[in-house]
Design brief:
Elements lengths: L1 H10 L8 E5 L9 E5 L3 E2 L5 E5 L6 H6 L3 H8 L2 E6 L24 H16 L6 E6 L1 H12 L6 E5 L31 H10 L10 E7 L8 H14 L3 E6 L6 E6 L5 E6 L11 H8 L8 E2 L7 E3 L25 E2 L4 E3 L8 E2 L5 E5 L2 E4 L1
Parallel strand pairs: 1-13, 4-5, 4-6, 6-7, 7-8, 8-11, 14-16
Antiparallel strand pairs: 1-2, 2-5, 3-12, 9-10, 10-11, 15-18, 17-18
Length: 372
């Protein structure tokens, strides 16, 4: 009888047992990150999955507490994943710079986050065609890198105060205290084609669906400068093959300018006048509407027992991921050349500086150049 009564109250939204849960045993976890998950009491029959990524100095709990995505999850039955970066990474920032994290199946933070997604899809019968990612600052940078390294996983993304994918490549770190901060300080300006090549290189040979993007930035951001907003738009307009259609003032509200590409379904940007780093609201309903998860409210009730920590040794049903062999070079002896996509320059680089035709060496920042 009590179970029936509880089911009635759950259906009416009067009993709410969902909370943020810590999860272990979700994958090989190549970079030692953590996972927290929010599973609403009522799930959609095949729930979408949204990954929400914190900025430097934060964690999954902080991202959960500082946003309202879970209130929409309660109504529409999608699942939220709140990863936490490795605390040993400088200032608890995400790894947005290493070859491992910037390469599909490379073994870095990007692969760890995707393992969390795979675990969630398997455990809750999630919809693999409706996986999304949103992030702030370092998490926004990771959002762009996930869109580049795993376009086959993420259908859409929404970075807030981010930088283009691979902007930190070769910098030796990706936090504000790093010796090379040319990326967030807008010292990296590339053509749309070059930025597009860096994104495509993250998953070389991939020709499938590309991640749709909704990009947000503050026009008074003095940490991740507003020029990076334009560089992001250049990158994704090239990758997605869309052109700027219009700029619209006071959209979605006073002080914002909308950059509409094509019909806005693939790429759209919003920059807010007078707002600095971290001051741009998440606009959760707009983000989730762009993703496409605000559909029919959920009706099915989850019946699993909740505990403060979920531990599992479940083996993923997907084919195990393997780390691809990384391309390396040795110092040039007698005028050797680097193959396409290989590093060809940068501070401290001692390998080949020439590229095999038709590739040419393109400088991304003082620490990294690549054959494109």
């Amino acid at each position: 009888m009590f179970g029936v009564i509880r089911a009635i109250f759950l259906a009416a939204g009067l009993v709410r047992g969902a909370s943020l849960q810590s999860v272990t045993g979700w994958g090989s976890n190549p970079s030692n990150i953590q996972m927290s998950i929010y599973v609403p009491d009522r799930l959609a029959s095949k729930p979408p999955v949204v990954v929400a990524l914190h900025g430097c100095g934060g964690n999954g709990q902080q991202m959960y507490s500082s946003s309202r995505f879970q209130t929409f999850a309660d109504q529409y039955g999608f699942i939220l994943i709140y990863p936490s970066s490795n605390s040993n990474q400088g200032m608890a920032c995400w790894d947005n710079h290493s070859p491992q994290s910037l390469t599909h199946n490379g073994g870095g933070d990007t692969q760890g986050i995707v393992q969390q997604v795979q675990y969630t899809l398997n455990k809750y019968n999630g919809d693999a065609d409706r996986v999304y990612v949103v992030g702030f600052s370092s998490g926004a940078m990771m959002t762009n890198n996930l869109a580049a390294t795993y376009p086959d996983v993420f259908e859409a993304g929404a970075p807030f105060a981010g930088v283009p994918a691979a902007c930190w490549a070769g910098a030796g770190g990706s936090n504000p205290l790093n010796t090379n901060t040319s990326c967030p300080n807008a010292g990296v300006t590339k053509s749309a084609q070059d930025w597009g090549n860096y994104a495509r290189n993250a998953y070389s040979g991939y020709n499938g669906r590309r991640t749709r993007m909704q990009i947000w930035h503050g026009a008074s951001d003095n940490l991740v400068l507003p020029q990076l907003f334009q560089e992001e738009l250049k990158q994704w307009s090239n990758v997605l093959g869309v052109s700027l259609t219009s700029t619209n003032s006071n959209n979605p509200e006073s002080g914002y300018t909308q950059y509409l590409y094509g019909d806005g379904k693939q790429l759209v940007g919003y920059i807010a006048a007078g707002l600095g780093h971290g001051a741009v609201p998440y606009h959760e309903s707009m983000v989730l509407s762009f993703f496409g998860v605000l559909t029919t409210p959920a009706t099915s009730t989850i019946t699993t027992t909740r505990t403060s920590t979920i531990t599992t040794t479940m083996t993923p049903t997907t084919t195990p991921r393997t780390t691809p062999a990384m391309t390396t070079t040795t110092p040039g002896n007698g005028g050797g050349s680097q193959s396409k996509w290989g590093q060809c320059g940068g501070i401290g680089w001692t390998g080949f500086t020439a590229c095999s035709p038709p590739a040419a060496c393109s400088t991304l920042n003082p620490y990294y150049a690549q054959c494109l």
